[in-house]
Amino acid sequence: MLTFLPTPIGNIEDITIRAIGVLEKADVLLCEDTRVAKRLLQLLSERFSKTFRVERFIPLHSHNEAEFIADLTPDFFDQNVVYVSDAGMPCISDPGAALARWCRQNGVAYTVLPGPSAFATAYAASGFEAIRFLFFGFLPHKGDARRQALAEALRQPWPVVLYEAPHRLEKLLKELEQEAPKRPLFLAKEISKRYERYYFGTAQNLLETLKAQGIRGEWAVVLDGVTPDEGDAEAALAEVLSSDMPPRKKAKAMARLTGKSVKECYRELTKSVD
């Protein structure tokens, strides 16, 4: 039997009673990082006076997932096997989906425990009242792939949840300040941890606030959906930014849409490629 087990994204007390029970019976732990998994069991043992009998800790992450699965046989799961990611929900911006697919294709029983996930928590905290939302995870780091992904996110009529690393959050806010200056944003920092903080505003005022405080920690970003008023202009700008036009032609089109000078638009375009 295989169990996919979510682990706390911050506060250790977010672990469920059921999850602790599964870990107590586990023979093998498949771990995104064995050191993190061992530390988790140590903390649970100290906090809740539990004893764990795990015999093997096996690394299973994005770099070795294909190789590990290629050598699997169904009898491996005759024992109690548990997959844990470092923090959060397996298969959601974490490894695990390929293993679940292999089990489905090979008739191996598995179950997934419900548990913490940063994107759902961030959306709940945002206060946006749309009946649906989209999860985009991490955007590509740079270049045309990033511009196109962000343009797609900004075109959506529903809120979109993104993840962003602290060293790229300022870059994201500057991009949003350029492409969607009036769009309401919600930022959640260090969800469920000691320094959890929520922020709401536009990209410009959030940039000012966070620069003064310092940008640290892990972030979830919720973009409100596009509104009819801003939709036409933003859609046109997004289409220009994601197009294959040469930079100078693109800068001229941006200037017509934003009111900025061609030189300023060209500088922003070439800078965003870095």
Would you write up a description of this structure?
The protein is of the alpha/beta class. The protein has 2 domains: 2-112, Cobalt-precorrin-4 Transmethylase, domain 1; 119-243, Tetrapyrrole methylase, C-terminal domain (Methyltransferase, Cobalt-precorrin-4 Transmethylase, Domain 2), CATH 3.30.950. The protein contains 11 helices and 10 strands. Helix 9 packs antiparallel against helix 10 (247-258). The longest helix has 15 residues, at 34-48.
- Name of the CATH homologous superfamily of the largest domain: Tetrapyrrole methylase, C-terminal domain
How far do the termini sit from each other? 47 Å
Stretches with pLDDT under 50, minimum 5 residues = none
Number of strands: 10
Quote the beta fraction: 15-25%
The major pleated sheet works out as:
5 strands, parallel
Name the helix and strand elements from N-terminus to C-terminus, one letter apiece: EHEHEHEHEHEHEHEEHEHHH
Named CATH architecture of the largest domain:
2-Layer Sandwich
Rg calculated over all Cα atoms: 22 Å
Summed up, the helix count is 11
**Largest beta sheet: what is the strand line-up?**
3-2-4-1-5
**Mean of residue pLDDT values:** 90
Which percent range fits the helix content? 40-55%
Number of domains: 2
Shape: elongated
Offer a few descriptive terms.
274 residues; alpha/beta; Methyltransferase, Cobalt-precorrin-4 Transmethylase, Domain 2; 2 domains; 11 helices; 45% helix; 16% strand; elongated
